[in-house]
Amino acid sequence: MFDIVWLVPLFPAIGFILNGLFGRALGKKAVSWIGPSAIGLAFLTSILIFFELLKKPPSERFFERIIFDWVVSGSFHTVIGYQIDPLSILMALVVTGVSFFIHIYSVGYMHEDPGYIRYFAYLNLFVFMMLNLVLANNFLLMFVGWEGVGLCSYLLIGFWFEKDSASNAGKKAFVVNRVGDFGFLLGMFLLFTSLGKHGIWTLDFTEVFANANKLDTVTVTAITILLFIGACGKSAQIPLYVWLPDAMEGPTPVSSLIHAATMVTAGVYMVARCNVLYSMAPLSMAIVAVIGVATAIFTASIGFCQNDIKKVLAYSTISQLGYMFLGVGVGAYSAGIFHLMTHAFFKGLLFLGAGSVMHALSGELDMRKMGALRKKIPITFWTFFIATLAIAGIPGLSGFFSKDEILWQAFSSPHGHFVLWLVAAVAAGMTAFYMFRAVFLTFFGESRVDPHVAHHIHESPRIMTIPLIILAILSVIGGYVGVPHVLGGANHIHEFLAPVVGGSEPGKSHAALSFVAQAWASGGENGGHSAALELLMMVISVVIALIGIGFAYLFYIKNPTLPKLLAERWKGLYRLVYNKYYVDEIYQVLFVNSLKKLGVGLWRGFDDFVIDGTVNGIAILIGWISSVMRRVQTGLVQNYAFSMIVGGLILLVYYLLRTIFY
Amino acid sequence: MKLPEIDLYLIAPEIILTAFGFLVLLADVFSPRTEKKGYLGILSLIGIVVAFFYTLPLIGSGKSGFEGMFTADGFALFLKVTFLIIAFITILISMGYAEREGIAFGEYYALILFSTLGMSLMASGTHLITIFLGLETMSIAIYVLAGMLREDRRSVESAFKYFLLGAFATGFLLYGIALLYGATGSLQLKEIATYIASKNLLRNPMLMISLVFLTIGFGFKIASVPFHMWTPDVYEGAPTSITAFMATGVKAAGFAALIRVFFTALPQFRPDWTSIMWLISVATMTVGNIVAISQSNIKRMLAYSSIAHAGYILVAFVAGNDIGISGILFYLMAYAFMNLGAFTCVILLGKKGEENTLITDYSGIGFKYPLLAASMTVFLLSMAGIPPLGGFMAKVYVFSAAVKEKFYWLAILGVLNSAVSVYYYLRVTVLMYFREPQREITGLQFSPASVLALIIALIGTFYMGLFPANVLSFAQKSIVGLM
User: Which of B269, B291, B272, B284 has its CA nearest to residue B228?
Assistant: First the structure.
């Protein structure tokens, strides 16, 4: 049964080939069927494999399928191979599942677009690459997927490339990601060579992780930090997050799929996949956690002042990714992945909801021109509202369980710290605030919609609303796979992932043990104390979320003039946040302009003169030699025979000399 | 007297090729003159396929026979597979081309089969007489094939030049063989090596001269500098399908014999021939690539390109290690696909009485014949060594073999040469896509057989670039026992 794993990426690949090469010939209708069903089949296959996997005892939940030898060069050997374990299958389920619904949604959303066929070709290609990323059994194939999704992201951000802003955003995403990818590559190289020093030339996950203990801490720290730079690029963390808000230039389902639910979480997946390495490098883990939590609060604050509904969601995504990194950074890999999953549901839904709002308002994005849409587009409203409750961390919804798990781990894990918890908890409150701000501005209050748009506001067609409803259901129930023990749950997801990420590594469990021992010594009551503490923390985080919601209510429902007053009162601060802390401008000055100047200088000075001069000089020289040598070719057989004789004579003389002198 | 042991299964592929050669001749004689001769091509294809299926079961057996004159070891069989692929594609492209040019006689196909037979003997010969017979069987067939376009002066000139110089080179080769026999008293390759080792003949002047003469003889067949001068003239004048056959098949067979003789009979002289081959390799790459730049005829350009490729292959020959020799096998097969493909494109761009072989004729065809131009681009890029195509992996193996044996300069010169070659390969691509057509080329006819050849060549080129491991491991298994 596991043998069919290759079908999972194969279906989207076939979809891509059919849509990409023959889409025009097949026609729009066929493309509308091929695109989503390719993903649907991949989803079904993943489900089958998942249930097959569940039948096995946890320790045997691992399967590798080598498709073929890829590179064989001397002692280096790598394969195209897929691996199934709890982590990869969970990722595959999330990717194919969410993609499937978003593909269906796209059939409605993109229907009028002239690039409809191209769109589905790209989207299928994306899923194919993403599946390679998560199912790969070695770093190299993972990197292929990693680069592949980057390419698709570029293509889809710049989907409407006639618009300058879209093609620029595509370029920006690509360039910023290159910076991160460079780190990833270096990390991979370092890993490869340092294991090679021990005679192990491999990039295979299983072999690498089995032999990781041969590496010293400094090397592992360097490797993991370099890999994390890659994750920062792909998953939009400080300092490489700047591309993601601009990426909203792409079609909204793309933002939903690539820039919220799947691709941007690749970094989190990568860290979780490499948990063996990270657990060996406490410094790297601390860096991951700190960058994560800093990103979470920093971008949440930017979310306060954005008026573009997609931009709010974009910053929210970055902030939530920060949470996931906080989770994996404190060693709570399963909590990070859990949040990744629930986030895929509710954030995917939020974006699709935003798309539905845009659909209703003829493409309007500015929340200042919305309002009171609750009654007019009820399905969109209710689903959007459910997702907002989930992300805000309202008890009972998926986001509550996953976020709370991370918060608790940030506090209690041996790698955690009170400050990490505090910052994350505050950021959670801010999340609740800006998300409810978005809901209130969009769906409540008075209508500020342009009059000529207002009269044809309509709910989206069913092909769009059904995915919304399904994702809303998932946003509610998705958390029940990870209900913590303290609430009487079984935390299935944690146990499910444990063979890959938890308890496998001796150092960590040792640390955890000592922590428990400490709690024992100080508290006197075993377990119960810590459970009480966990409950208390939970209550605090819920209260913080409610405070956030309360403020949002106060500002945007109760007293809508208040935000304006505050903005005028703290004009400087407001402008700072409104302009996203001028990070883009600072980067522009620091990196873009100076690099551009350097580039222009090198181009005019070095390239034009030195390089081109040399190259053209050599080319002219070779051309000249060539035309001279060409004349040797007289066409006369005598000359040709003569050349053979001369050649033979030279060889003879050479031999003679060699014989004499050696 | 003990009769020599005869195992006909060992030479089954050769027997089949011979039989089908005669069958084609007979079929031609007994069919009405006016009839179209397409079925002769199909008959030859069948012969090749049958020979192929008799070659496959021999793989892995490693048997030899005929009193040490003939072997069916992995090396020979890999090359035979290559030759059969080359012959298959050559016949496919001939079916349209020969018809168009009015040379689709029975002997045309028969000679291709006989020539392939000669190649097989060269690969399988473990005795200098077998090898020599194979070489002459191949060469004589090719001399005739080169002059097939009897009405065309250049074709006749090409055949005559090739024949004269070929005879000249054969003289050297025979003389070399004779000297070898004189010095060692044997023509069997292994026996020669044993004798040289036992008597310590490393400073024997007869052997020295013999080595040089053998180098000339084989160097001529593989078109290495300075024994290459015939190549551009002959390649340009010969029918294009035969040019393709020569550039791939004859060259591969030349390498087969060269490797077999030098590695089996003369391993003691390795330091000597390594240093000569170093020089020849560098000269061959450099002259081939540099002169290719200033060519205006695509067939001449590809001729020089084929000289350059011989130089790259010699890099691995100099390295002489496992990776090198298996790399040569890989290279010869990859080169067969891409070069045959490129010549197929050259043929397809021509029509009766209008060959269109000037490089400028390729201007702008990218828009008029997009698939043809795209295929040509693939083959040219592969020859330039651009991933993910077969030519790239071939170069990787060849150069890494040199690096492994610490021939750093050779590898560097090889890579630099590769860089130079990109210029003339890309020039054609640039013309195809970025220049306006200089004159109208219309009315091209794509015969189904040539299109099939093109598809096979494309698949081969991509396959060897994307999944090199399969062919390489086959090649690696094939050279076991040779070294």
Answer: B284
Cα–Cα nearest to A391, from A333, A345, A326: A345
How many domains does the structure of chain A reveal? 2
Last residue of a domain, one of A577, A607, A637: A577
Q: Are residues A571 and A619 in the same domain?
A: no
**A596 and A554 co-located in one domain:** no
Q: What is the rounded distance in angstroms from the CA atom of residue A315 to the CA atom of residue A299? A: 6
Helices (H) and strands (E) in chain A, counts: 29, 2
**How many CA atoms does the CB half-sphere of A286 hold within 13 Å?**
7
The angle at the Cα of A13, spanning A9 to A19, to the nearest 5 degrees, equals 150
Contacts of B230 in chain A (CB under 8 A): 640
* Rounded-to-integer distance, Cα B38 and Cα B98, Å: 10
Contact predicate A244/A312, CB 8 Å: no
pTM (predicted TM-score): 0.70
Answer for the pair A398, A345: CB distance below 8 angstroms, yes or no.
yes
Q: Which residues contact A353 (CB under 8 A, 6 or more apart)?
A: A380, A383, A384, A387, A468
Q: State the residue for tokens 């769906």.
A: A443
Query: Does one domain contain both A304 and A166?
Result: yes
Compute how many other C-beta atoms are within 10 angstroms of the C-beta atom of residue A365: 17
Same domain, A518 and A615: no
- CB neighbours of residue A287 within 10 Å: 17
Backbone angles phi, psi at A64, to 5 degrees: -120, 140
Helix (H) or strand (E) holding A105: helix A86-109
The pLDDT tens digits for A315-348 are 999 999 999 999 999 988 988 999 999 999 999 9
* Domain assignment present for A19: no
Last residue of a domain, one of A525, A553, A577: A577
Interface test with B, best of A80, A640, A653 (most B CBs within 10 A): A640
The CA distance from A436 to A312, in Å, is 11
Q: Please report, as a single letter, which amino acid is at residue B333.
A: M
DSSP-based three-state secondary structure for A198: coil
Residues A287 and A427 in one domain: yes
- The answer to whether A472 and A349 have CB atoms below 8 angstroms apart is yes
Hey, is the C-beta of A74 within 8 angstroms of any chain B C-beta?
yes
Chain A CB contacts of B226 under 8 Å are: 643-644, 646-647, 650
- Give the one of A70, A72, A651 whose C-beta lies nearest to B212's C-beta: A651
Three-class SS of A328-395? HHCCCHHHHHHHHHHHHHHHHHHHHHHHHHHHHCCCCCEHHHCCCCCCCCHHHHHHHHHHHHHHHCCC
Q: How many CB pairs under 8 A join A and B?
A: 98
A422 and A536: one domain? yes
* Model confidence pLDDT, tens digit, residues B4-50: 677 888 999 999 999 999 999 999 888 877 666 778 899 999 999 99
| Single-letter code of the amino acid located at A141 | L
Q: Please name the residues between 590 and 649 in chain A that touch chain B, using a CB distance below 8 Å.
A: 619, 622-623, 625-627, 629-630, 632-633, 635, 637, 639-641, 643-644, 646-648
| Count of CB atoms situated within 10 Å of the CB of A52 | 16
Per-residue pLDDT tens digits for B434-445:
888 887 888 888
Residue B41 in contact with residue B108, Cβ under 8 Å?
no
- Do residues A630 and A546 share a domain? no
Q: Which domain holds residue A651?
A: 584-661
In angstroms, the Cα distances linking B118 to A213, B21, B112, B113, B257 are: 59, 12, 10, 9, 11
Q: Average pLDDT in the B383-411 region?
A: 93
Q: Is residue A237 part of a domain?
A: yes
Judge: A73–B164 Cβ closer than 8 Å, yes or no.
no
| Same domain flag for A547 and A635 | no
Question: Residue B161 and residue A637: Cβ atoms within 8 Å?
Answer: yes
Domain membership of residue A107 (yes or no) is no
